[in-house]
Amino acid sequence: MTTTAAGAGPLSQISGSAPAGVDDFDAAAPYRISGSVSVRPESFGALVYDFHTRRLSFLKTRALVRVVEALADQPDVHGALEVAEVPAHQREQYLKALAGLAKAGTIQPRSTTEGDTTS
Question: Is 55 helix (H, G, I), strand (E, B) or coil?
Fold first, then answer.
């Protein structure tokens, strides 16, 4: 079994360009938890298990769990960060964590109409 960890580590200021490691992650796009993934809340954050890859991951903070859960209901990643009340000075670290989750397949892009509750 493979384990990975995702979470907000040391914090740094947001710069005008994309944070290192998130160049191919489009935070302006809509995402959702992958259909093969189960999230189990824990005191430290959550356990994430992908039934297709059999990969066990950890979300290191409760705030990151809130962001991941909010993705499906927001028009983009920035909206999920806002709803989860992630402070502006921490968002770069959360974008890095989300980019890692996307690369691992834990979260995936969704069509813009999947989370649309207005239709």
Answer: strand
